Amino acid sequence: MYNLIMFGPPGAGKGTQAKIISKRLEIPAISTGEMIRAAIKSETPMGLAAREYTESGRLVPDEVVIGIIKERLTEADCQKGFILDGFPRTIPQAEALAQMGVEITKVISFEVSDEAIVDRMSGRRLCSSCSASYHVKYAPSAVEGKCDSCGAELIIRKDDKPEVVLSRLETYHSETEPLKAFYEKQGVLAIVNGEGEVDKVSESAFKALGVTVD
Ligand code: AP5
């Protein structure tokens, strides 16, 4: 059974790799960022409260995201393992996860320089309907501005504006990066070079997990 954490700065490729690993291991990829964006879109009370945090590049309060994850992990599809993408992001979140009785198999930390992050975020495009992710240079859609899967319009995420990206990077370095030492102490941290082509990064991630791919 694999209980995995995709770790790294904003735009490191956590979501991209989580989807690839999810397909191969047949376990769900759970993104707190996607769940928060869906709540913002539907204007739920949680979404309305979260909006000001995400749009300024700050973290949503711990108790909110811990509640979301606690509920999600009780769902049937998590019984055979799961991939957490974007959670935990603070020491209290990691401690809450441990208190839920979750044993982490591996934390894969995708290492990408701040310069490469800024380049990636400036070209990211997101489907306005199904949330599929593209990049104008590295992963373009077949028809410019349209989603390959559902044909809906591609949009730029509000928190991908350059000034918000810089604030997200700062938040990562101050609040989230210390978790690497936390998981290293537990012997579950695997460092993977997140730069280079998507396939190469996946190859390194599978190697770190000891999983063979055809
Ligand atoms: P979230 O959605 O988790 O954002 P993030 O961590 O900043 O990560 P991203 O989704 O931006 O990037 P990613 O690493 O998944 O990269 P991706 O694969 O998309 O969170 C958003 C906000 O929600 C947070 O700022 C916070 O406010 C809140 N939040 C979420 N979780 C929280 C928590 N636990 N606690 C508190 N608040 C929380 O790739 C990026 C781009 O690069 C794409 O265009 C992709 O096509 C491209 N790309 C991917 N891999 C490669 C590659 N190898 N080479 C070239 N391009 C690539």
Number of alpha- plus pi-helical segments: 9
- Order of strands side by side in the largest beta sheet? 2-3-1-4-8
Task: Describe the largest sheet.
Answer: 5 strands, parallel
Q: Report the C-alpha radius of gyration, rounded.
A: 16 Å
Total number of beta strands? 8
What is the string of helix and strand elements?
A: EHEHHHEHEHEEEHHEH
Task: Report the portion of residues in β strands.
Answer: 15-25%
Q: Roughly what is the average pLDDT, rounded to an integer?
A: 94
Distance between the ends: 20 Å
* Rough outline: globular
Q: Structural class of the secondary elements?
A: alpha/beta
Associated small molecules? BIS(adenosine)-5'-pentaphosphate
Low-confidence stretches: none
What is the helix fraction of residues, given as a range?
A: 40-55%
Tell me what you see in this structure.
With 214 residues, this protein is of the alpha/beta class. The chain has nine helices and eight strands. The protein has helices at residues 14-25, 32-41, 45-55, 62-72, 91-99, 114-123, 162-176, 179-185, 198-209, and strands at residues 2-7, 29-31, 81-85, 106-111, 124-127, 133-135, 154-155, 189-193. The chain has a five-stranded parallel sheet with strand order 2-3-1-4-8. A three-stranded antiparallel sheet has the order 6-5-7. Strand 5 and strand 6 form a beta hairpin. Helix 1 crosses helix 9 and helix 4 runs parallel beside helix 5 (91-99). The protein is globular, with a radius of gyration of 16 Å. The model has no long low-confidence stretch (mean pLDDT 94). It binds BIS(adenosine)-5'-pentaphosphate. Residues 8, 10-16, 31-33, 36, 53-54, 57-60, 65, 86-87, 89, 93, 120, 124, 133-135, 138-139, 159, 168, 197-198, 201 line the site of BIS(adenosine)-5'-pentaphosphate.
